[in-house]
Amino acid sequence: MVILRFLQSFLDIALWRKGPQDLPASSTLATLALIAYLSTGFLRMRLFTLDRPTALLFICVDALMLGAWLWLVLAFFGRRQRFVQTITATLGVGLLVLLLDVTIRSAQLALGWGNEVSMTWLKLRFLVVALVLGRVFMLALDRGLITGIALTIAIIYSTQAVVQLMLDLRG
């Protein structure tokens, strides 16, 4: 029941009814959110038929970059004390998006849907992530929505760049 309550809180954050400040500043909850995020992210990558080392690289770099960006930006704006709540909210909302990814990819594979479904979802996903995480960052930083969205986009593209660099160095 406690898990469902926190999933409901993450859904409320995604639907703009709550913010990261409404979550407890609990390192235990942040750790559980991280474990769920990493596990679901790994499952998502495997559904896209990535080999295990590449999937692990993607999800680990994603989580590390997310944490590093949040820590640095919160420190820059003098809001370091909000890190635990912000990372928990970010991972929780990310978990919901990953669960949607897994559901859509599973349906695509089971029903034989073409790649146009994936492309449509990726475009919609980018918009959803930018708006939802942009609002989380807006609330955490006490800045505007545009600042939050810009931070979200910077995190997305810098993570992709680091993963690509690591893949190029590996291969």
**Class from secondary-structure proportions:** mainly alpha
Q: Strand fraction band?
A: under 5%
Shape estimate? globular
The N- and C-terminal alpha carbons lie at a distance of 45 Å
Nearest-angstrom radius of gyration? 16 Å
Number of strands: 0
Portion of residues within helices: over 70%
Order of helices and strands: HHHHHH
- DSSP summary: helix tally: 6
Task: Describe the main β-sheet briefly.
Answer: none
Low-confidence stretches: none
| Integer average pLDDT | 93
Draw up the topology in text.
Elements: H1 2-14, H2 27-47, H3 52-76, H4 83-111, H5 115-141, H6 145-170
Characterization of the model:
This protein is mainly α and 171 residues long. It contains six helices and no strands. The chain has helices at residues 2-14, 27-47, 52-76, 83-111, 115-141, 145-170. Helix 5 (115-141) crosses helix 6 (145-170). The longest helix is centred in the middle third of the chain and has 29 residues, at 83-111. 27% of the residues are buried.
For the structure shown, list the relevant keywords.
globular, mainly alpha, 6 helices, 171 residues
Short description:
With 171 residues, the chain is mainly alpha-helical. Helix content is 82%, strand content 0%.
